[in-house]
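CO-FOLDING WORKSHEET

Operator: S.A.
Ligand of interest: zinc ion
Run index: 169
Mode: holo prediction, single chain
Checklist:
[x] sequence pasted
[x] SMILES validated
[ ] output reviewed
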Amino acid sequence: MTTLDLRTLRLRPGEVRKETLDVELEPFVLGGQRYDFVPSTIPVELVLSQASGATVFDLSLRLHLSGACMRCLGFAELERDVTAREFYDPEAPVGDELHSDYVAREHLRVSAWARDAIALELPDQILCRPDCAGLCPVCGKDLNAEPHEHLEREPDPRWAALEGLREEL
Ligand SMILES: [Zn+2]
Ligand SMILES: [Zn+2]
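OUTPUT RECEIVED:
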């Protein structure tokens, strides 16, 4: 867990400081599939500034995840810039917007914050490409490699016979 000790910052009002921390991120498991960070340790840039009363934390990182396409199970990856902002005023009550949930005992929990910020940025589906055709619901083959359709099955002759009966009634 990467944390930043806020007691050592001693920011003066108006002062801005940048810190880059290497944060190790555990894979995400989404829809039963595992998505790994590439690489597993990524630089997280923090900009810390002192506004009146509260410290402002700005986080930015470049997300790169790889795993299985949610439609065809082929290789998929996701790259995205992630940013987030938190405030911390030691006087503000817990639960207040100015009392970041990621500050505990004067330490900013950078790993937990980065992970939550990433989770908010994840799309509903991670795909190999936006128009991935997925797997055939009938035979399970990859429709990207082998585009095909199945002809509708001929109606069962027994149903046809019943239809005939009904017409007679
Ligand atoms: Zn796909
Ligand atoms: Zn098929």
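REVIEW:
The helical segments are 110-121, 157-168.
The chain has a mean pLDDT of 91.
[x] output reviewed
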